[in-house]
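Troubleshooting: if your tokenizer reports a length mismatch, compare your output against this known-good record of 332 residues.
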Amino acid sequence: MENNIKKMALDSTVQREMQLINGYSRKELNPEDVYVFTVVLCDNDIDRDFERFTAGALNDLAKLFVGKTGIFDHNPTAKNQVARIISCTVESVPGEYTAAGDQLQRLVARAYMLRTEGTAETIKAIEAGIIKEVSVGVSISKTICSICHNDLHSVECQHRLGQEYNGALCYGELSNPIDAYEFSFVAVPAQRKAGVIKANFQIAKHDEEKHIAFGWAYQCEDAAGAQLIDHSGEFVDTATLEKAAYKFVELYREGSDNHERGGVGVIVESMMFTPEKTAALGIPAGTLPTGWWVGFKVSDADVWSKIKDGTYSMFSIEGTAYKVPIKNDRPG
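Known-good structure output:
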């Protein structure tokens, strides 16, 4: 999973993004009219086609993709349009490297779709993790051979993608993009590592007078030190979660209602419990799990009412992700 888990429904962010969305809409839209999500479009790692975007190409594509449409299976028909990109940035992934050995960078977009009867099933499928892989349609002016550094399609290059030459893999470096056409939801993308992750943990208690809800935002290991698997069938390692927790408190702080309506609360308590910290606090080993404990002061009356009556019984975190498959050697 990724190094940065992002909370995406902050009040100021919602206002800014609605301004961008209404720049494309002919009528004024409100937050409840749209579904906004984050999507990793591509990165600079070597893909299944033995090609990769250069860092310069990613920066160029970040400008070209703004305003472009999201479709299904690269089928460019008007009725197949379901989303539109409103912003796009290039992010470095700390501690992650490409197969070529350089810093992993990815192109991350924010996109929206209308909430209608026609899109309801698509939104449900995205939320459930059924629809999440994407592929991009772009025009590239140059593909450079990693072996001879000539244009891969020129007579000077005699190498073949995916073949090894003196132990070095031949791949194409995609540079100088001319245009970006669309991004598509697909079943099997060329880029291996894109996905959306959501995890839920029970709200442990709530303070009626202070309107504060407490609980685990995420647990990495149980009290005995065993790795915990979340509701998505995945896990976050302790170091990754710790960095994400610190970044959330430093930069974001606000909570949302179901990852959609922002400004419903603010974090007032945050503690990343690790074995080292619990030992320093004098807490006996095996007492607490390893994880992120939070408290949110809830300012929204409707959300607080749902916490009190048990409708909202869990905290949830959401974000884009780079996933690493783990081999299961256990029998059965």
